[in-house]
Amino acid sequence: MSDIFREVDEDLRRDRAEHVFKTYGAYMIAAAVVLVAGTGGYTAWRSWQQSKQQQTTFALVTAIAQTAQGPEKGVEALAAYAGTADARMAALAQFNAAALLLRQNKPDEAATVYDGIAGNGAVDPVYRDLATLLGAMQRVESGDPAQLTAKLQPLTAETSPWRFTARELTALLAARAGDKDKARGLFQQLADDQQAPGGVRSRAADLASLYGKT
């Protein structure tokens, strides 16, 4: 009797399977096709992305290589590259272009390039902040102290990776504005900050002493 029940049970299972397949088979096949196509498509997309990244990187290296023909050529090539690249790679090109402008003793033009990076919302915030810092650095002796201090203020926060340099520049701007007490206080804070780099602390200690003299 057990063999009969087993055969009946198997027949019922087979009937259910056939019913399910007849009802949903087309959808199951379609889902399998989509899954396979999706997997293949994703693999192809990754391959295309890697190839594109390699081409983009090679184009940047080629632009930088134009520096061998002179800084002007390098700046032109990097500017042309930045005009077609994505935000991250364009920012790298612009940082290099600004460095070339500084080598040509053109701090104002370099600062303008940094401003462009800082104002591009598509660029990673940490690099935008770096551009703000470098732009202020080029104007620390000629720009408006109040405006530059306001730009640097967010960069002086404890969470900023650029806080020590930003605080040092802020102190220098206070000195330029004639507020020697503020400058001395800021320099002293830097000199006492054990987390600040040694070079920053050493300079800050000397300047705190300088502005402490009457």
TrEMBL record:
<keyword id="KW-1133">Transmembrane helix</keyword>
<keyword id="KW-0472">Membrane</keyword>
<protein>
    <submittedName>
        <fullName>Tetratricopeptide repeat protein</fullName>
    </submittedName>
</protein>
<feature type="domain" description="Ancillary SecYEG translocon subunit/Cell division coordinator CpoB TPR">
    <location>
        <begin position="21"/>
        <end position="195"/>
    </location>
</feature>
<keyword id="KW-0812">Transmembrane</keyword>
<dbReference type="Pfam" id="PF09976">
    <property type="entry name" value="TPR_21"/>
</dbReference>
<dbReference type="InterPro" id="IPR018704">
    <property type="entry name" value="SecYEG/CpoB_TPR"/>
</dbReference>
<feature type="transmembrane region" description="Helical">
    <location>
        <begin position="24"/>
        <end position="45"/>
    </location>
</feature>
